[in-house]
Specification:
- The longest helix is centred in the last third of the chain and has 20 residues, at 155-174.
- The chain has a five-stranded parallel sheet. The chain has a two-stranded antiparallel ribbon with strand order 5-7.
- The chain has one domain (20-174): Rossmann fold, CATH 3.40.50.2300.
- Helices cover 41% and strands 15% of the residues.
- By secondary structure, the chain is an alpha/beta fold.
Amino acid sequence: MIISHLSQFVPSLSVLKDVQILVVDNDSDSRYLCSILFESYGAKVTTIESIADALTLLDWFIPDILICEIKFSDETVVSLIQRVRAIGWSCDRIIPILIASAYCPTSLPQNLNTTVEAYLIKPIDIDCFVSEVWNLLHLPIAIKNTSIKSRVCKHKEWKRQYFFQVARARRQVLL
């Protein structure tokens, strides 16, 4: 693995081998892109177009990571995030949540006080997207609980801490 920038890497084709990714997005092109992209890196991708269908799926399916849109026409993503958190707690692990949306986190309603691990604004650089998923699956638990608001408000400080933790995690993997 060649590290060109602390937050990005040149992934091998099996970097996400057997990772279960759940993609919940109301845009069919976004779902298709995620499916093709992450399957090309070895992941097993399940795509869903609605929150209700995703909640039903979670009755019997436990993903390793959730990638979802934040804006749905008649549904709120809060129930999905809460359900994924509950499933993670019952399994004694954290299921990282990556929001991939065209909406800026500062424009979200005040009552959306949810905790996610990462927020990427569409359009997303493909290499950055794969890198972010890999990082979320390999980061220590200590930095996985950052709210959207605190990430936006403390972006520079968070990036410094994030890069430090990524570098430390990668050093541990190499040892």
